[in-house]
Amino acid sequence: MTIEKILEKAKENNPTANLDLIKRAYLFASKAHQGQKRNSGEDYIIHTLHTAYNLAEMKLNSTTIAAGLLHDVLEDTEITKEELEKEFGKEIAFLVEGVSKLGKIKYRGKERQAESFRKLFLATGKNIRVILIRLFDRLHNLETLRYLPEEKRKRIALESLEIYAPLAYRLGIGELKGQIEDLSFPHVYPEEYQQLIERVKDKYQERERYLKKIRIKIIKKLRKENIQPIEIQSRAKHYYSLWQKLKRYDNDLDKIYDLVALRIIVKNVEECYQTLGAIHKLWKPLPGRIKDYIALPKPNGYQSLHTTVFCIDGRIIEFQIRTPLMHKEAEFGIAAHWYYSEQKGLKAFLKKKITKAPENELDWVKQLKDWQKETKDFSADRYLESLKIDFFRNRIFVFTPDGDVISLPEEATPVDFAYAIHTDIGNHCQQAKVNSKIARLDQALQNGDIVEIIVNKNRRPSKDWFRFIKANLTRTRIKKFFKTELEAWREKRKKQPKTEIKREKREVVAVKPKAVVKKKTKILVAGQTGISINIARCCSPSANNNIKAYITKKHEASIHRADCENLKRAQKKWPQKVIEATWNEK
Ligand code: MN
């Protein structure tokens, strides 16, 4: 890898790229890392060149490429942030500092892992380019993993599988996710990896040959329909994702239809649907396997048409159809957005300080921000759990009656839906209609359901809901409701009559014999009847409450709820005056 290659790539992708900045960053980093070696024996700068090259290939801007070249100078050399800022400005210093902060997080056990998740995501919220640099830094580290001792290798590979690959996926960079996983796979599960390779070697080759035949037929057919495909690619499934999928399909390779898939890239959306039609004219589609991710993109923004058909010789093959733009976004994910914004010209480019996510920020990034706010007091364990549940699990899409798409975890219920729309709708949710029919609040929603919530302002959340809700956001919001309610109640209680002791005197005087007799039969004080009793007004215990008695100066028993704050205060001062009391069950 050389700086020339990077400059070439940057220029190729963007004629207005600031090559001078990239060169300066290179010279600065080379000097800073001088004499340092990687475990592979290579000069350290080779590592940062690889990182920067990938960023250039992803069509990221010059600032990001420069930051890629400089990404290790704060962590591994004497250079300070101030020096970096003086030389390259605030933005680059900020990016490099962010990358270094992420680098300090090491994967050791669950607690730490959760912590690193949190930090990673916080950085994402600030600037997603920090994450991109870190992802490519990690990619090159994985490519040179074999030079590290075994224990370290395993740790880094596992961390990559559990943190970096899901991140790449969530950012829509599917190809990078696949690469990270396939590089980590043999280090984390060496035996399983070997077995899989043995099993699929022939299958992959055989399917590639078969797809050549299909390709010829397709091109002919499309020509007839007046469609000129821009590109037809065959795409082999990545090993790790194949291994994951096999686990879900009884380990039966014949059930995996997308081992090798055909990808057709055509001019525009109309041609996508026409191509789909042409394929279905040739071969029968498998029911339930046509996926229209153009009308209904995946949460990470992915768009394409998918179909699986019974092909030549009755074999089952998956097709993916998309436009060049969709293809670019599938490859580059969120990074593609910056590329397009940078293309708007030199003037805009020079002025533009891209520090926040693009306007059509992916849905989940937005959700993540909200959710971070609401979970910031969680313990590391709980945070990890909720993260796994909400963001690393398959999601479904349902609609509001107006057609807005709401993304929820699988098996989410109308209550989750209501809270996803607005906390107030959730708190007052009385009834739901799913596809115009009245539905239970605990019914599991399905992809494509149209959900309507009927609210009632007098309705409040029920603790029963905890049994069936699926989104952690819902859980957090309901808990918050009950917490707020409890606090309001306590607040009200504080404003009630002064101290228990004074009021009790009044009560004792005011007690009417009749009332005492009536209560007397119902309550046992220390297992006994026959003692004068009055019911404390501060907490007015009733038959389903646990109770205690406070013995007054006049040797009467004042009955309180066991958890009454006034009673607790009195007990602290005069513990001997508080004794057991129960309701007389007879
Ligand atoms: Mn690095």
Structure description:
This protein is an alpha+beta fold and 586 residues long. It has four domains: 3-185, Hypothetical protein af1432 (Orthogonal Bundle), CATH 1.10.3210; 191-322, Beta Polymerase, domain 2, CATH 3.30.460; 363-478, Ubiquitin-like (UB roll), CATH 3.10.20; 496-583, no CATH class. 53% of the residues lie in helices and 13% in strands. It is built from 25 helices and 16 strands. Strands 1, 2, 3, 4, 5 and 6 form a six-stranded mixed beta sheet that branches. A five-stranded mixed beta sheet has the order 12-16-14-15-13. A three-stranded antiparallel beta sheet has the order 10-9-11. β9 (429-434) and β10 form a beta hairpin. It is extended, with a radius of gyration of 33 Å. Mean pLDDT is 80; it is low at 338-364, 387-393, 504-510 and 512-520. Manganese (II) ion binds at residues 47, 71-72, 137.
